[in-house]
Amino acid sequence: MSGAQAKKADGSRNILLDRRVAAGVLALVVLVFTPLGARMSLKRAVRDVEEQFFTGIGGRGSVSDFLSDSVDAALGLISVGAGYEAAGDETGELRVDRGLLLDALEDGDISEIATANALVVRSFNALKDALLSLPLTDDDAMSVDYYVSSFEGAQGAVSHSTYNEAVAEFIADTYRRFPAKLIGSVLGVDPPRSFS
Question: Whole domain around residue 110: which residue ranges?
Fold first, then answer.
């Protein structure tokens, strides 16, 4: 468009019809919105990987579900421990750690969940050992066996989950490759968190 065509009837310039202004606006839009769009896409991909922690992978149970089973088994062991004064300290520790894991599961922060789960494993085993060192009633001994078996089964399922493999695969195949590597480092998109 010629300079004469970019002028209004009153002689003033119509800047929206000026090619240089239009090119500048287009360049600004590209410079601002392309990185924002790329950042949003990478964040969405990271979120999709982390969502598998809560939904499961390929129709298998999720890590979150297995941890909920662990929480239930811990509550059962706490109920047995509450009947034995000699296991009072261990019962109290497991009760606190179980609450931390419940809160972490509700908040959905995978790193906090991993930390709280490690505490629950430690305090669950401490209470189990304390109870097994006591003369338990037959019913309580059966209950301890049941809760220990349930807890160990749930924790075993957690350790055999393919979630960490999915995270590692995403990081290797997507996050550490161009352009995701550049977007992640420059625009502050963290990789998905593994459960460890």
Answer: 63-160
